Predict the 3D structure of the following.
Amino acid sequence: MRYGHLRPLPASGRLALSLVCAVAATLAAGLAFLAGAVALGSTACGTALISLALGAIQWRAIRAARADGDADEVTIDLRNPVPRLSTNDPVTGLVDKAFFRVTLSQRVASARRHLQPLSLVVFELDGFERARPERRDQALRLLGSAIRRTLRECDTACRYGDAAVACLLEDTPEAGAAAAAERVRKAVTMSPTGRSFTLSAGIACYPSHALDAHDLLRRSVQALAAARAAGRDRVEIAGVD
């Protein structure tokens, strides 16, 4: 007589079979002891035996469940961890444009709620398109470093374009934003790495130049265009409509 290959029971089947066997064996033993106790006329002894039987059933069930859980435990391969989402530009080390757009709306709403000024400065490296790729990366790293040294922890800066970086300055009016932008401009243009580049900047402020995030960004970009049109290597503040 030939037998086919028997497939092993799945984890859920093993658990159910173990529980059934445990219950059957314990009940049989309990009933045997109970019958003996009744025959002897000892009700208290029978009750105690029933309690012990039920306790044994529960203990066996817990052990079976733990064993099954250990068998089905998921193993995490630490050599191949799930990659973390990054919002940083690899060249400048600043946050990316998508993160900045969300932050801009939040910061404008916060400035409106707390009745505080908010300044947006957009920098752009002049002569960037004519430089070699390695010189471009050097200038961008220099710009990112100068911004991190100048800005406060509460401020936000991002890589906004090929040669552009945008900065949000918390609780800062246009005079403070102009001073900070000028420090960054000098740090870049006076560095040996940045000698072949100049830096232009445009500034717009809430609420003096714009009342929402879209207009604040638009006015700062317009101010940047005005700085470049006026000869570059300068900081320009948006005009009042």
In short: Strands lie at 118-126, 156-159, 164-170, 198-206, 235-237. Helices lie at 11-40, 43-71, 97-114, 133-150, 174-189, 213-229.
